[in-house]
Amino acid sequence: MSEALANLLNETRQFPPPAALAANANVKADAYAEAAADRLGFWERQARRLTWTKEWDQVLDWSNPPFAKWFVGGQLNVAYNCLDRHVEAGLGDRVAIHWEGEPGDTRTITYAELHRLTCQTANALTDLGVVAGDRVAIYLPMVPEAAVAMLACARIGATHSVVFGGFSADALTNRIQDASAKVVITADGGFRRGKPSALKPTVDEALANCPSVEHVLVVRRTGEEVAWSEKDRWWHETVETASTAHTAQPFDAEHPLFILYTSGTTARPKGILHTTGGYLTQTAYTTHAVFDLKPETDVYWCTADIGWVTGHSYIVYGPLANGATQVMYEGTPDTPHKGRFWEIVDRYGVTILYTAPTLIRTMMKWGEGIPAQHDLSSLRLLGSVGEPINPEAWIWYRQHVGRGERPIVDTWWQTETGAMMISPLPGVTEAKPGSAMTPLPGISADVVDDQGQSVPNGGGGYLVLREPWPSMLRTIWGDDNRFIETYWSRFEGMYFAGDGAKRDDDGHIWLLGRVDDVMLVSGHNISTTEVESALVSHPSVAEAAVVGATDPTTGQAIVAFAIPRGTVDTSGEAGEQLIADLRNHVARTLGPIAKPRQIMLVAELPKTRSGKIMRRLLRDVAEHRSLGDVTTLQDSSVMELISSGMGGGK
Ligand code: 6R9
């Protein structure tokens, strides 16, 4: 990052933890020193949160980097840790999941019931011939059976590969083939935007090219008619008639727990492999530490889909290992109305809410009047994940969802890291809006320059991880070389995350977006995140995306796409005036070098199905190229709208 820009976004606001939360926090400031003094000892103590059938002989084997083994020789069962031990401790009647379907139907599932369902599913899978080490693909909507299916696989040592229900037959085919899955668990469909959305036909299409699949287990959710073949079994006829008795067998700490594919923007998806003991240790610890989770009293809600790593680690494994009570919701935030999320918070008394910046910015666009119509007083802690959260979105979240007083934890991590890595601790950290702040206890993250040297405070560069961590990916499924090349070759002996970052004058870390998105304007590196945050800090803007487009004089020029807030007038002259104001606003905030060449006012931005902005496609538009691969796009009509408007606004 250039010196000129490294410190331009001067966000100086800082919010100390509420006194009562700090006094009663699960984790206090001493955790940092404790972990720094003895990192492996620290993780060993966290591993003791779990119930192991056999203790490990060695905490970490790093003799063959980058292939790590954690808790070597230890044995445990993940489902036992998430279910049986809570039931055995007399907590069987505690609600595990308050589930709400999009049409408004509800289910309340206790730990005892979740345990029963998981045992039945484990027996049913075993009857279908699934044994430890086999792969099972899960392609389901957000129904409780999704969590049950994952836990049942874990229980019998089968490796699950969850494929997000919005993916196409092609994407599903690739993932089933890559993992050679033996069984697919799916549903007739789910409910989205007020109507049934079919899944089974996509599986049928995929299966034409997936000879490894022997059986398909089908949950009935929508009741719509589906085609049927001899491989298909109804869930309610197979699982729900199976025995409820099942004894969990222990597995090695390094037994493969799941594969989850990251949709690379250009390349073939990577099957990220996670294993058992270290993964559960870090997801359990971070749920306890970062959410300050008190399982007896909290009601936790993570709005992610189970098809993403956030759903794996912070709907299924982390919360259930802690015995949490949580909400699970099937549908979209604006069905049947834009207050649906806040209605859910109020109905279940949600105390901890974990969501994504894209959702917060959408709520900003809809206006603060909507959360104001609901009682959100139960909320005591707010979390964010998935993208950098712009300072103004952070402030809005605190103000209009957190009543101006609730702490926010901005958690940086990746599918590859398995669990949170950089985040405030809610009872300790004086959080700055837009900063993920500091590596969690036991984690050594750093910001380095091109040469891999740590940058001083005030500097910017690349985010790396210097030491292995328990929930790290173990490899890319079937491709050790690609694992080494992608993550361990950019800097000697360090994990390269692919994100740009800066360290501010106090040493706190700010994420600047994917390094592929950084712009080079007249020789200056400018981060998309900083220009986007400057735009969002204007009172008329809810959301913005910024790209570098080839420019004959400056190399690259900044082209911005901005979504105005709900009531802003963008017609004719008012629109022209707003664009001029916004260009000047960015120049004033960040310096003249960051002034966008062009700003377009748009209604929507192209996003991946997990809500991340796809700047690559906007770059195609800005450079008047035909669009590249749009298969991971959430809503493909968005691009037509944006392309047709191009050339209009300047
Ligand atoms: C958990 C998840 C990982 C990428 C990551 C980064 C971005 C996630 C962030 C964040 C800034 C945060 N990211 N959390 N950027 N601040 N708090 O999202 O995993 O889907 O694999 O994406 O998301 O760019 O590298 P995944």
Automatic annotation (TrEMBL):
<dbReference type="GO" id="GO:0005524">
    <property type="term" value="F:ATP binding"/>
</dbReference>
<keyword id="KW-0479">Metal-binding</keyword>
<dbReference type="GO" id="GO:0046872">
    <property type="term" value="F:metal ion binding"/>
</dbReference>
<feature type="binding site">
    <location>
        <position position="536"/>
    </location>
    <ligand>
        <name>Mg(2+)</name>
    </ligand>
</feature>
<feature type="binding site">
    <location>
        <position position="514"/>
    </location>
    <ligand>
        <name>ATP</name>
    </ligand>
</feature>
<dbReference type="InterPro" id="IPR042099">
    <property type="entry name" value="ANL_N_sf"/>
</dbReference>
<protein>
    <recommendedName>
        <fullName>Acetyl-coenzyme A synthetase</fullName>
        <ecNumber>6.2.1.1</ecNumber>
    </recommendedName>
</protein>
<comment type="function">
    <text>Catalyzes the conversion of acetate into acetyl-CoA (AcCoA), an essential intermediate at the junction of anabolic and catabolic pathways. AcsA undergoes a two-step reaction. In the first half reaction, AcsA combines acetate with ATP to form acetyl-adenylate (AcAMP) intermediate. In the second half reaction, it can then transfer the acetyl group from AcAMP to the sulfhydryl group of CoA, forming the product AcCoA.</text>
</comment>
<dbReference type="InterPro" id="IPR011904">
    <property type="entry name" value="Ac_CoA_lig"/>
</dbReference>
<feature type="domain" description="Acetyl-coenzyme A synthetase N-terminal">
    <location>
        <begin position="30"/>
        <end position="82"/>
    </location>
</feature>
<feature type="binding site">
    <location>
        <position position="541"/>
    </location>
    <ligand>
        <name>Mg(2+)</name>
    </ligand>
</feature>
<dbReference type="GO" id="GO:0003987">
    <property type="term" value="F:acetate-CoA ligase activity"/>
</dbReference>
<dbReference type="Pfam" id="PF00501">
    <property type="entry name" value="AMP-binding"/>
</dbReference>
<dbReference type="Pfam" id="PF16177">
    <property type="entry name" value="ACAS_N"/>
</dbReference>
<feature type="binding site">
    <location>
        <position position="538"/>
    </location>
    <ligand>
        <name>Mg(2+)</name>
    </ligand>
</feature>
<keyword id="KW-0067">ATP-binding</keyword>
<feature type="binding site">
    <location>
        <begin position="386"/>
        <end position="388"/>
    </location>
    <ligand>
        <name>ATP</name>
    </ligand>
</feature>
<keyword id="KW-0547">Nucleotide-binding</keyword>
<dbReference type="GO" id="GO:0019427">
    <property type="term" value="P:acetyl-CoA biosynthetic process from acetate"/>
</dbReference>
<dbReference type="InterPro" id="IPR025110">
    <property type="entry name" value="AMP-bd_C"/>
</dbReference>
<feature type="binding site">
    <location>
        <position position="522"/>
    </location>
    <ligand>
        <name>CoA</name>
    </ligand>
</feature>
<dbReference type="InterPro" id="IPR032387">
    <property type="entry name" value="ACAS_N"/>
</dbReference>
<feature type="domain" description="AMP-dependent synthetase/ligase">
    <location>
        <begin position="90"/>
        <end position="469"/>
    </location>
</feature>
<feature type="binding site">
    <location>
        <position position="499"/>
    </location>
    <ligand>
        <name>ATP</name>
    </ligand>
</feature>
<dbReference type="InterPro" id="IPR000873">
    <property type="entry name" value="AMP-dep_synth/lig_dom"/>
</dbReference>
<dbReference type="Pfam" id="PF13193">
    <property type="entry name" value="AMP-binding_C"/>
</dbReference>
<feature type="modified residue" description="N6-acetyllysine">
    <location>
        <position position="612"/>
    </location>
</feature>
<dbReference type="GO" id="GO:0016208">
    <property type="term" value="F:AMP binding"/>
</dbReference>
<keyword id="KW-0007">Acetylation</keyword>
<comment type="similarity">
    <text>Belongs to the ATP-dependent AMP-binding enzyme family.</text>
</comment>
<feature type="binding site">
    <location>
        <begin position="410"/>
        <end position="415"/>
    </location>
    <ligand>
        <name>ATP</name>
    </ligand>
</feature>
<feature type="binding site">
    <location>
        <position position="310"/>
    </location>
    <ligand>
        <name>CoA</name>
    </ligand>
</feature>
<keyword id="KW-0436">Ligase</keyword>
<dbReference type="InterPro" id="IPR045851">
    <property type="entry name" value="AMP-bd_C_sf"/>
</dbReference>
<dbReference type="GO" id="GO:0005829">
    <property type="term" value="C:cytosol"/>
</dbReference>
<keyword id="KW-0460">Magnesium</keyword>
<feature type="binding site">
    <location>
        <begin position="192"/>
        <end position="195"/>
    </location>
    <ligand>
        <name>CoA</name>
    </ligand>
</feature>
<feature type="domain" description="AMP-binding enzyme C-terminal">
    <location>
        <begin position="530"/>
        <end position="612"/>
    </location>
</feature>
